[in-house]
Write a sequence for this structure.
């Protein structure tokens, strides 16, 4: 494939990844923070006193990461960070499903029960983030070598 | 003797006149019946409306683990009012019956006691619908007779349940428990079980809002 196609493909992937983070963050911010805290509580991983600070900050962090990816600045590092974050989310979801927790995913706001489709969707998101990260690193390398 | 003869009719006439005037005298307004599903002081600026289903385990947890602390810190101190709303889910066959028992006890001024007992014994009566047995553990025999009578014969016992269910549909409920936090006409929805520290912290924030 010609390098120009890779460039366009990376742009599309980057926009998709940015939209995912923006949508996830904005959906949470549109609801009371306590709603996201309820979702976090359901995963039974965090101590009670950590629920509020995480519920209040994580949606903003998602929006900030979405904006950063959208801007294209330091794309390789921000997409790498996005891959790490999605990996953590995915691990939590797989664990919860495996031990039979009936929880609200809280991924894009409330109202989505955790199920196998959630895992499929998040795995696709991880694949996208990983692809953007690899593409961004390769693109950076190509430009640096030139 | 003559005086007595005159006095008796005079008293009778004045008494009858007083009785005749009674209907035109200004009446004391009838006391508004207290909504037994609402607790807290009317001066509170925030109300939380709690939609529950008596067979839902998370509702039981919310009612027994979170609400006592909220009651102590926010309801008794006049900061919030709590309105219990029934939202019996279609898959739960005894939820409506449980709501009837709670409402019947409410008519006798024992709503909170009944709700607490219904949730406490959820695992028992949800198997077979034996709410009589569950309620009889905390209510006296005389009270149980009245409660059973109301459950059996009061055609209006489900009225609040129907109204709550309709309200729940307007609030776009998808699950129980769901809390509607109401301040100044604005309704904010939070679904699912919430530990007391989270609900408390959130209420502090809403109360502080202008």
């Amino acid at each position: 494939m010609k390098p120009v196609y890779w460039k366009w493909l990376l742009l599309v992937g980057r926009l998709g990844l940015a939209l995912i983070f923006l949508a996830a963050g904005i959906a949470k911010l549109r609801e009371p923070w306590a709603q996201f805290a309820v979702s976090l509580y359901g995963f039974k991983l965090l101590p009670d006193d950590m629920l509020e600070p995480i519920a209040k900050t994580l949606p903003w962090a998602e929006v900030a990461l979405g904006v950063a990816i959208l801007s294209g600045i330091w794309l390789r590092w921000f997409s790498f960070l996005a891959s790490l974050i999605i990996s953590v989310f995915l691990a939590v979801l797989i664990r919860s499903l495996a031990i039979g927790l009936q929880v609200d995913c809280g991924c894009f706001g409330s109202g989505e029960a955790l199920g196998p489709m959630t895992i499929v969707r998040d795995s696709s998101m991880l694949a996208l983030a990983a692809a953007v990260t690899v593409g961004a690193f390769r693109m950076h390398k190509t430009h640096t070598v030139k | 003797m003559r005086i007595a003869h005159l006095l008796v009719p005079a008293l009778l006439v004045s008494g009858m006149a007083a009785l005749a005037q009674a209907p035109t005298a200004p009446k004391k307004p009838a006391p508004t019946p207290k909504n037994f599903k609402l607790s807290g002081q009317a001066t509170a600026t925030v109300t939380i409306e709690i939609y529950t289903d008596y067979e839902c385990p998370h509702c039981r947890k919310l009612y027994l683990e979170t609400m006592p602390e909220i009651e102590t810190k926010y309801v008794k101190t006049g900061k919030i009012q709590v309105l219990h709303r029934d939202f019996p889910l279609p898959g739960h066959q005894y939820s409506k019956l449980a709501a009837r028992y709670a409402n019947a006890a409410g008519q006798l001024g024992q709503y909170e006691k009944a709700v607490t007992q219904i949730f406490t014994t959820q695992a028992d009566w949800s198997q077979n619908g034996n709410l009589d047995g569950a309620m009889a553990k905390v209510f006296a025999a005389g009270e149980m007779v009245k409660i059973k009578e109301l459950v059996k014969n009061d055609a209006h016992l489900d009225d609040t349940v129907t109204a709550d269910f309709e309200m729940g549909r307007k609030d776009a409920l998808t699950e129980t428990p769901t809390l509607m936090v109401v301040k100044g006409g604005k309704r904010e929805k939070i679904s699912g079980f919430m530990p007391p520290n989270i609900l408390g912290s959130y209420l502090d924030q809403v109360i502080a809002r202008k």
Remarks:
- Residues 2-21 of chain B form the longest helix (20 residues).
- Chain B touches chain A at residues 174, 181, 188-195, 197-199, 201-202 (CB under 8 Å).
